[in-house]
Design goal:
Blueprint lengths: L5 E3 L5 E4 L11 H17 L8 E2 L6 E5 L2 H8 L7 E5 L4 H11 L13 E7 L4 E6 L4 H10 L5 E5 L12 H23 L13 E4 L4 H12 L3 E3 L11 E5 L4 E4 L4 H10 L11 E15 L2 E12 L5 E5 L25 E5 L4 E8 L10 E9 L3 E10 L11 E8 L8 E3 L9 E4 L1
Parallel strand pairs: 2-8, 4-5, 7-8, 10-13, 16-22, 19-21
Antiparallel strand pairs: 1-2, 3-4, 6-7, 9-15, 11-12, 11-14, 13-14, 14-15, 16-17, 17-20, 18-19
Length: 437
């Protein structure tokens, strides 16, 4: 296939076409689970000692990467449940992930032709970072070689992935810029959470158990939304021992927790508009328990603080995990609001390279008046994927209602999702993801 051709640039960077296969899948669930285990070891537990794992399509077996002698010793002592081959590599996963993150910032730094960078990600096969660009650019390649080790890079030239000047609509170009900014904010949020992206709640961190009684509901609902709460008793200030987050697929993560006092402070701080007429909720007690929390990796049972409230059977809850990934969206500007269609959720298979995303769109298909068809594109980094949904509407000049419907689109990834988060494009917030075997 012509688009899969490869060449070695004078800078030492490998140049490949869009059909170049950077990772292989497997139909063996044990191998997929072992790959996931190896990826966690490389990216989270030992990023300074290991490189990326890879599934060798010629054998179907798992290959793991040692970047240091210590990394090799760790891999030799680890049981993966399937046979593995250990290879020695020149670059650690920490180094490669930093290259991926830094490359997404080049456009904001004014690097010539950096707007051509569409996405970045891990080349599992050759233990490199891949960078997709819309067309060949000598200034951009020279700058990449100046900033990063050439033998750590694979540049994928793919004109189909990003509409170039002259064919792009303004909104499409802007969507790409929003996606790059979202990936940068996600990288910052992961760093603020201690460098781990294990626990990223989706939606509100404050909740309630039960429904407000009629006598107090008018006040209490608005008071809680506004953060108008007070402690009527002294709440525990001590930090509890570490807890566990358990996902439906059996994954378990040990997490640090926050005190009841800090949890209540967060309830107050997260309040929306002030409510000077609200009667404060009086908190009369607190207990540490667990509850269902929607996360970027799907539903999980996580530690939560549960507060009793004077005069009601309703209990207020707050997620008790300390090191959680929280994205701060850009300030809202009504004169320059973000564009695009925000996805609501994503589903796929473990080890697969396709996601089905849901969103609100036109009720009918593109062959109907007021209808539309939808395609989706992925902008990727080492820690997250932003999904851009593009509407192809019917152009008939008729009056249409503003009624929306649940629609779906399939997006192709350059590599399996793994533990990466899926973000919507407007504000870069994570959405729930469900991966099935």
């Amino acid at each position: 296939v012509a688009s899969a051709a490869t060449s070695l640039d004078p800078t030492g960077i490998l140049i490949v076409g869009r059909d170049y296969q950077l990772q292989s899948g497997s139909t063996d669930e044990a191998v997929l689970m072992a790959f996931d285990q190896a990826l966690r070891l490389a990216e989270e537990a030992n990023p300074q000692d290991m490189g990326y794992p890879w599934i060798d399509p010629s054998t179907g077996g798992l290959v793991v990467s040692a970047a240091t002698a210590h990394g090799r010793a760790l891999l030799e002592s680890t049981s993966f449940g399937v046979p593995v081959r250990i290879r020695d590599v020149a670059h650690t996963s920490a180094e490669l992930q930093k290259i991926q993150d830094d490359a997404t910032r080049l456009y904001a730094q004014g690097v010539t032709d950096a707007v051509l960078i569409y996405e970045t990600g891990p080349d599992y096969r050759d233990n490199k970072t891949w960078i997709t660009i819309a067309r060949f650019s000598r200034p951009l390649l020279d700058e990449l070689a100046r900033r990063f080790p050439s033998d750590a890079l694979v540049v994928v030239v793919d004109p189909t992935r990003y509409p170039l000047q002259g064919t792009a609509t303004p909104d499409t170009s802007r969507l790409h810029q929003q996606a790059q900014a979202a990936l940068a904010r996600w990288t910052d949020a992961v760093g603020a959470a201690g460098g781990r992206s294990d626990f990223a709640p989706v939606g509100e961190l404050t909740g309630q158990v039960g429904d407000w009684e009629e006598a107090v509901g008018g006040n209490n609902k608005i008071a809680l939304m506004s953060g108008v709460v007070e402690a009527a008793v002294s709440l525990p200030a001590e930090t509890p021992p570490d807890g566990e987050v358990r996902w439906q697929n059996g994954s378990i993560e040990t997490v640090r927790l926050i005190s009841a006092q800090r949890a209540l402070s967060e309830v107050k701080a997260d309040g929306g508009q002030p409510c000077p007429d609200c009667v404060p909720l009086q908190i009369t007690g607190a207990r540490l328990t667990s509850g269902s929390v929607e996360t970027s990796r799907g539903p999980a049972q996580a530690p939560v603080w549960e507060f009793t409230v004077q005069g009601t059977e309703v209990r207020v809850t707050r997620v008790a995990v300390a090191d959680r990934v929280t994205v701060v969206p850009p300030p809202w500007d009504p004169n320059n609001s973000p564009v695009g269609i925000s996805i609501d959720s994503a589903t796929g298979t473990v080890g697969g390279r396709q996601l089905t995303v849901t969103f609100t769109g036109a009720p009918g298909t593109g062959d109907q008046a007021c209808g539309a068809d939808y395609t989706a594109e992925a902008v990727e980094s080492s820690t997250a994927v932003v999904v851009i949904v593009i509407e192809h509407s019917n152009g008939l000049p008729v009056a249409c209602s503003a009624v929306g419907a649940r629609r779906t689109a399939v997006v192709e990834l350059a590599a399996p999702l793994g533990d990466r988060a899926v973000l919507e494009v407007q504000e870069g917030r994570p959405v729930p993801v469900l991966l099935t075997p």
